[in-house]
Specification:
Number of strands: 13
Strand order of the largest sheet: 2-1-3-12-4-13
Largest sheet: 6 strands, mixed
Radius of gyration: 24 Å
Distance between the termini: 68 Å
Structural class: alpha/beta
């Protein structure tokens, strides 16, 4: 009997020690976030180290398109995504009956008009070809930038979903070529100019603040309110503790300094 009691006490002591050790460990969890290759995935990889210190594992899944990151958040394959701006998200939800929401505004990438066969705006000839992204709000954004340079005029009714059909005046008879955003940099050799999304420009080694002939006004309220890149989740997951820690990591000084030093104006922190 005494042996049984001693054995029970010993077992209790061992279990207590293990329980104590376990209590000292930080809670761990894993979150999977979809992102464009550049700059979003690169920025997330900086945040990954910050999260690791809190016992959170960040898995970054890279995408080269603008559809799968949202559909995969909607169906639960991803916990979050980081690749899109406000206007794109709103239009995507409307078009696809999805329920994705922003949890944080992180950065802004200026759109730029980049030279192809024609090297300056003044040299644009009648009938010159300019390529623009063909996806909803980004096409409208490109057309607005062309309008700001006096190259075209959009109808007064044109909004954030404008397409080439909303061009009212085109004094140079420019041919606006709508192509997939990921192909814009590859189109440069075949067109006079291209209006390119910031992330794809960076991926091709271009910097809108240095290489573009014209860029958006980053201080404009229209730009800041509509084209800031955001971290998104499916509605209902906004308060997930690991997601909230990711928000803190993305808005840290470490991440801000990384953006400023690496992208030199092509990525602007919005926090």
């Amino acid at each position: 009997m005494k042996k049984i009691v001693k054995l029970a006490l010993a077992l209790t002591l061992v279990l207590t020690i293990f329980a104590g050790c376990g209590a000292d460990k930080k809670d761990s969890s894993t979150i999977k976030v979809g992102a464009s290759v550049t700059p979003h995935a690169e920025i997330l990889n900086v945040a990954k180290d910050i999260l690791a210190e809190k016992g959170i594992t960040l898995e970054v899944v890279e995408f080269t398109d603008y559809v799968q990151p949202n559909t995969n958040v909607e169906n639960g394959q991803l916990d979050a995504n980081y690749f899109q701006h406000v206007q794109y998200l709103q239009q995507f939800n409307k078009d696809n009956d999805t329920h994705i929401v922003s949890v944080a505004a992180i950065h802004y990438e200026p759109f730029g008009i980049f030279p192809g066969k024609t090297k300056s705006l003044d040299e644009l000839k009648d009938g010159a070809v300019i390529s623009v992204p063909n996806d909803g709000t980004n096409e409208a954004r490109a057309l607005m930038l062309l309008e700001a340079q006096g190259l075209i005029k959009l109808k007064d009714t044109a909004d954030f979903t404008a397409t080439v059909l909303d061009i009212e005046e085109n004094p140079k008879n420019l041919v606006i070529k709508e192509i997939e955003a990921a192909q814009l940099t590859l189109s440069l050799q075949d067109v006079d100019m291209a209006v390119i999304n910031g992330n794809y420009a960076i991926q091709a080694g271009l910097n809108a603040t240095v290489d573009a002939l014209a860029i958006e006004d980053k201080d404009s309220d229209v730009i800041k309110n509509n084209y800031t890149n955001i971290l998104c989740v499916k509605e209902g997951n906004e308060n997930n503790p690991a997601i909230q820690e990711l928000v803190k990591a993305l808005k840290s000084e470490k991440v801000k300094n990384f953006m400023l030093e690496k992208y030199k104006g092509a990525v602007v922190p919005m926090f």
